[in-house]
Automatic annotation (TrEMBL):
Belongs to the class I-like SAM-binding methyltransferase superfamily. Cation-dependent O-methyltransferase family. Keywords: Methyltransferase, S-adenosyl-L-methionine, Transferase. The keyword Methyltransferase applies. It comes from Coccomyxa subellipsoidea (strain C-169) (Green microalga). This is O-methyltransferase. GO terms for biological process: methylation. Signal peptide: none annotated. SUPFAM superfamilies: S-adenosyl-L-methionine-dependent methyltransferases. GO terms for molecular function: O-methyltransferase activity; S-adenosylmethionine-dependent methyltransferase activity. InterPro entries: Cation-dep_OMT, SAM-dependent_MTases_sf, SAM_O-MeTrfase.
Length: 196
């Protein structure tokens, strides 16, 4: 699996154990593999979601029968949509994410989304979370990426704005009665929040 070492599951006891998990959960897929091959070579290749999070996303889409999903923070992918047959399913909005999500609300789309994936600028996470909670139907799910933030969440000496924002959203969702949550140690930490 190319580029696996880019984000090697820091929460795992060893890289070998992490690789075992990937080898036993990620199923090879021509289009995804090609996309990943290209993405990891990009100068910002580290932005690409690692393969351990892909089965989770696929599973949730199927469990939720998700038809309407907002990915907040898009990286590569567009050149592969046509070949993968998903071109007509993707509505790319190149704009600050808060504006796009507010636009959906103004358009009367509250409660119509099945799923949201927060994976953009970390200091925007709280805003995206609140907007997505409004956009989601009850029983819908928000995935929050990077919630372990390369292990920096437990390093008190790390006080960057991004780290503070990740700690804040983690503290917030833990106490948020509007959702049921689970934080998973895969990828760079992924929190699943189910809207009640
Ligand atoms: C980590 S990458 C997304 C990775 C992608 N979700 C994936 O799984 O491959 C983050 C992306 O968010 C975008 N981004 C950052 N700040 C943003 C903002 N305020 N509004 C919209 N997109 C933003 C960046 O341009 C970047 O492409």
């Amino acid at each position: 699996m190319s580029g696996l070492e880019l984000k090697c599951g820091k929460a795992f006891a060893s890289f070998e154990l992490y690789k075992y998990l990937v080898d036993h959960s990620y199923r090879a897929n021509k289009h995804l593999d090609e996309l990943r091959e290209v993405s990891v070579k990009h100068e910002w290749g580290g932005m690409c979601s690692p393969p351990d999070s892909i089965p989770l996303l696929q599973l949730l889409v199927q469990l939720l029968h998700a038809k309407k999903i907002a990915e907040v923070g898009v990286f590569t992918g567009k050149p592969f949509w046509k070949a993968a047959g998903v071109q007509d399913k993707v509505d790319l909005r190149l704009a600050p994410a808060a504006e796009t999500l507010k636009g959906f609300l103004q358009n009367g789309e509250e409660g119509t989304f099945d799923m949201g994936f927060i994976d953009a600028d970390k200091t925007g996470y709280d805003v995206y979370y609140e907007l997505l909670l409004k956009l989601l139907r009850p029983g819908g799910v928000i995935l929050i990426d990077n919630t372990l933030w390369d292990g920096n969440v437990i390093k008190p000496e790390v006080q960057t704005a991004d780290t503070l924002a990740i700690r804040a959203i983690n503290d917030k969702v833990l106490k948020d009665d509007r959702v049921t949550i689970c934080m998973l140690p895969i990828s760079d930490g992924v929190t699943i929040a189910l809207k009640k």
